[in-house]
Amino acid sequence: MAFWRRSPVATRILDCGTSKKRSIASLGWTRLVDYFVSIRQFRWTMTVNKDQLFSTSSDLKKILLTTKKDDTGRK
Asked: What is the top-level taxon of the source organism (predicted)?
């Protein structure tokens, strides 16, 4: 995937002899790749955060349950 990506500056330098259409198309391709990569990174961070959130909530539930048991004196 990274093989196809080119920076805008490199695209302009490489395509300076060719038509403008080609440079615009290659710029669009780079932006599209960047967009999909950012979506994948965002999804990955969301799943990581979700796992952390669930682990903290389960810890909180345990703490709340233990305090309730201690307050009432029953197990």
From this structure: Eukaryota
Tokens of 71: 């307050």
Q: List pLDDT tens digits, range 31-43.
A: 777 777 777 666 6
Could you tell me which of 1, 68, 72 has the C-alpha nearest to residue 32?
Answer: 1
Give the other-Cβ count within 10 Å of 41's Cβ.
Answer: 10
Does pTM surpass 0.90? no
State yes or no: pLDDT of 10 exceeds 60: no
3-state secondary structure of 61: helix
Grouping H, G, I as helix, E, B as strand and the rest as coil, residue 17 is coil
Q: What are phi and psi of 34, to 5 degrees?
A: -60, -40
